[in-house]
Design a protein that fits this description.
nine-stranded mixed β-sheet; 36% helix; 9 strands; Spore Coat Polysaccharide Biosynthesis Protein SpsA, Chain A; alpha/beta; 279 residues
């Protein structure tokens, strides 16, 4: 089996069914794959009990995106794992080419595709730099928008890397992430301390620490219906979890790595943004 596709459903029955249908319609017939669907305690009318093309449907408690993905992987057998959001629509499915590319490049552990938003703009989550203290400060001050071609100020959203250019990046979106199973096993899968948000940056960071590269592979193109995968992005609970995930990442990975003064500038900044957003 070449590829195991892991999809989490959370109250998005119609979106999930469309995502799976478009995946099956567009995937190369030479790619041997299976689809594993994990239902994170959806409402009864949003649960999916049967759908053509799905190898296995797993009913799970909602312990977060990462936990659901880990459960899906435990029930899969592919050499590669594709973590796929339930709110994406394939426009150009080049997953067979992606698998062949990763087969040839043994140092590449993770690969992500090009994600386009409904307005036609790039979802910058599909190619990012790690949110180091300086990178985060540059992002919060919007210096990346002022100096788009700067490798110093544009490090987080990688604005200096062309959207259609294959390139090494720090991290890609968990909404469209291909990972070698051997790498997944080596780093222990997703950190389940993150309920949602941040777990994709974290797993790319840990893969990097093990010496593996992450690649932005724009031959794969999907439409990302952001904010519709069971989550209201304007919800105070969702916003709180976003900032909580940022705090988890900083505590876990940067507290003992950077100057403590610089670390706390960013840490307090995240706390303040979380507080302001909750008002």
């Amino acid at each position: 089996m070449d590829l195991s596709v892991i999809i989490i459903n959370y109250n998005t029955k119609s979106l999930t069914e469309k995502t799976i249908d478009l995946f099956i319609q567009t995937v190369d017939k030479d790619l041997k794959y299976e689809i594993i669907l994990v239902d994170n305690s959806s409402k009864n009318d949003e649960k999916i009990f049967k759908i053509d093309g799905v190898f296995k449907i797993i009913d799970s408690e909602n312990n977060g995106f990462g936990a659901g993905c880990n459960l899906g992987v435990k029930n899969s057998i592919g050499r590669y794992i594709l973590f796929l959001n339930s709110d994406v629509e394939f426009k150009n499915n080049k997953l067979l080419e992606a698998v062949r590319y990763m087969d040839k490049n043994l140092d590449v552990g993770i690969l992500g595709g090009k994600m386009i938003l409904q307005d036609g703009s790039l979802d910058h989550g599909c190619k990012r730099g790690f949110p180091t203290p300086f990178t985060s400060i540059s992002y919060f001050l919007k210096l990346d928008k002022i100096f788009k071609k700067s490798k110093i100020f544009g490090k987080y959203r990688l604005t200096y890397i062309p959207d259609d250019e294959l390139n090494y990046v720090d991290c890609v979106s968990g909404g469209l992430m291909v990972m070698k199973r051997s790498v997944y096993n080596q780093i222990g899968g997703f950190d389940e301390d993150y309920f949602m948000y941040g777990e994709d940056i974290d797993i790319c960071y840990r893969a990097c620490q093990k010496g593996y590269k992450t690649v932005y592979f724009p031959e794969i193109v999907v439409l990302h219906l952001k904010g519709q995968s069971g989550l209201n992005t304007k919800s105070k609970i969702t916003i709180k979890r976003f900032y909580d995930s940022m705090l988890i990442f900083y505590k876990k990975n940067y507290k003992n790595k950077y100057n403590i003064f610089l670390y706390y500038i960013v840490y307090i900044g995240i706390k303040l943004k979380k507080l302001i957003s909750s008002i």
